[in-house]
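Sample intake sheet
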Amino acid sequence: MQVADMVTLITNVGFPVTLSFILIKYLLQTMGEKLDKMDDTIQLLTQQVKSIEAYTEASKTADHADTKAK
């Protein structure tokens, strides 16, 4: 947003409304970025949990097979 755009907006709707618009735009951008990072982290965590579950299941299966063999 350019200075001229802000001056026009202040002239048309007033300073408090303009400031509110600017703050809302900033908050939405910031929260969007944080939510994107959180989504990526949750996906990575999900993949790691699935990997651990698969390893645990494989280990249990191997232990069970060893127990039957003895």
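Comment: Residues 63 and 69 are 10 Å apart (CA to CA). The chain has a mean pLDDT of 88.
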